[in-house]
UniProtKB/TrEMBL annotation:
Protein name per Swiss-Prot or TrEMBL: Glycosyl hydrolase family 32 N-terminal domain-containing protein
Any Pfam family: Glyco_hydro_32N
GO molecular function, one term: hydrolase activity, acting on glycosyl bonds
Family that this chain belongs to: Belongs to the glycosyl hydrolase 32 family.
Organism classification: Bacteria, Bacillati, Actinomycetota, Thermoleophilia, Solirubrobacterales
Length: 307
């Protein structure tokens, strides 16, 4: 378990260097007392482990930029990918103070590292922004978006792909969540693409991951019950972690066929990780808001139960 009495810890993601699992996570001071305030105070923490149970805590990986920067308020969820050049790249979400939208102006940035310990920002602005032709925006004139976050990046057939938590323009609220998509030749310069999925009962697909489990490609995502359609809740009940299989890393993924992780209905923002002996396990935190203040820590691994 990863727990810090002075900080709340919630969303997390993993980078595996072959020897240690490096966990990056959102953290905010517990002194805030009101958990809803954590979103404007989040930084990216860092810990590492050999067994996903006992963690060594390191210096924070990344903190907000200086006043006036595009990422000067708080940093949110991301992912880490490594290219053929050996450089580790962290793609992260950020919010800023500059345009007055704060939580509703979600942007995606990049930092790089040679050792997963020391990170340097790349560029002075967001990597890729939503296009109102395909994705719902808060204000089409500025490009601000209420849902444009949690980039998950991987390389497939020499092309870098980014999955983004996004919302479609044509579906009703609580059924408009889609997998946003962008591509890049080098992990630095990105071109936006249309969504990879069509809406189906989820208001947003948070903290997405792609994992090759057995002979299936699993798209894993989080959706709080409050962000699911009535028909979705009637079909399955209150679950937060979901999976849907695809034939390739790019799907197709039919969200209407997604199934919940039933072992722990409140498991949230849960990295699916392969242990050294080949077993697939979930870690993450339990989202029990409004009582969640006592559950802001990373739990010990739970096995992926055969679906």
């Amino acid at each position: 378990m990863l727990q810090d009495p002075e900080h709340w810890i919630w969303d997390s993601w993993i980078a595996d260097d072959g020897e240690r699992y490096h966990l990056f996570f959102l953290k905010a001071p517990a002194a805030l007392k009101d958990p809803t305030l954590r979103h404007e105070a989040a930084v990216i923490g860092h810990a590492s482990s050999t067994n996903l149970t006992h963690w060594d805590v390191h210096e924070d990986a990344l903190r907000p930029g200086p006043e006036g920067a595009w990422d000067d308020l708080a940093l949110w969820t991301g992912s880490v990918a490594r290219g053929e050049d050996g450089v580790w790249r962290m793609y992260y979400t950020a919010i800023n103070t500059g345009r007055g939208f704060t939580l509703r102006d979600q942007r995606i940035g990049l930092a790089e590292s040679d050792d997963l310990m020391r990170w340097r920002r790349v560029g002075d602005g967001p990597l890729v922004s939503p296009d109102p032709r395909w994705y719902r925006t808060h204000d089409p004139e500025t490009g601000a978006s209420e849902t444009w976050r949690d980039p998950f990046v991987f390389v497939h057939d020499g092309v870098w792909h980014m999955f983004i938590t996004a919302r479609a323009t044509t579906a009703p609220r609580l059924s408009d969540g889609v997998v946003g998509h962008a591509t890049s030749p080098d992990g630095r310069v990105w071109e936006l693409q249309p969504p990879l999925t069509t809406p189906a009962g989820f208001g947003q697909l948070e903290v997405m991951q792609l994992r090759h489990v057995g002979d299936e490609w699993l798209l894993v995502f989080t959706c709080h019950p409050d962000e699911q359609s009535e028909s979705q809740l009637l079909s399955f009940g209150n679950f937060s972690t979901w999976m849907v299989a695809g034939e390739s890393p790019l799907g197709p993924f039919d969200l209407s066929r997604a199934k919940p992780f039933m072992t722990d209905p409140k498991l949230f923002a849960a990295p699916l990780v392969q242990t050294r002996d080949g077993e697939w396990v979930f870690i993450g935190f339990r989202n029990t808001e409004p009582e969640g203040v006592l559950n802001f820590h990373i739990i010990d691994p739970l096995p992926l139960v055969p679906r």
